[in-house]
Amino acid sequence: MSVATLTAHLAALPTMVISGIAHRCAALPFAAIAWPKNFFGVLLLAAITVALVLLAKRVKFSRQVHCVLAVLLISILVPSLSHPGWPPKDWTLLACDVGQGDGLVLNLGEHRAIVIDAGPDPRLIGKCLDELKIKSVPLVILTHDHADHVEGLPGVLRHRKVDSIWITPLDEPRGEFHRISRWAKSIPVTHVRAGIRVRIGGYRIETLWPNGIEDSPNNSSIATLITRASPQRSPLRLFLGGDLEAPAQAVLLETWRHHPEWGPTRVDLVKICHHGSANQDPNFLTALRPRVAVISVGKANMYGHPARNTVAALVRLGVYVARTDESGSVAIAQRAQGLAVVARGHRAWDARRR
Description:
It is globular and about 80 Å long.
């Protein structure tokens, strides 16, 4: 062992002790107290602050204690004022931060949602759905059977009413397919191909892929065109394509261009396929011409996702790129001025800035 390595290990010992104390304390009863994530929570905190200031005037503290209390209160109050409430009340689509995987939620209102993929960890997708207060899921779409899209399914099913699950016709890897079947229990599980059209809660969902020539789990991904019409606003069009790679994208584009019912290829939002990998058909992205692209990807992942050339291609097209590895969960809202993107803890972007 080198001197540098030994020094690093010794320096890590105090950190391990601190981490251990933090984990044990966090596990204690009442270690964390739920706080209202809205303007009422800010007002309540302000009231407590005023009460403590009045108390401080009555009780004699040293100047150092006053300074410490002031710093603590400011550190709590300022973030509360800067980032009020999550998610935004008018969210339409939300990409949950599930690490290296996909977990998308389409808002149907009244605590109902469609879930597209469940990510790799039941705790992460479950926490996201809990924060959104989703209690009923008419449809779960598992685009393909890879672990980073399906292993979180128990977190979707737990404490929620799920009516139906769609899966791809290619049941590979077999182990994942068997786990999906076991987790689903009595919930209907349906293999779907291109050509399915359903309406759920104001959305029209059309499956564009797979078309029967898929050669791998990624290229067997269920790709959907989701449309919502509104009398007050222009129709909203979303394309969600799982992990489709360049060869499948090229075939899909040709099919799309010649299909009489799918209409123009341009969409408002694209969930970039395969976590923004380099295996993209540039003509496909150019034809879709989205206003917003969401890349669901884990921070510092071992695959190098998203690829620099993929992000650069989107930027050249003038697309606003939202990434879960940089911003955490990302919400999309359709507003009078156009689409708005609200990343958790960050300022919102909207179509007026284009």
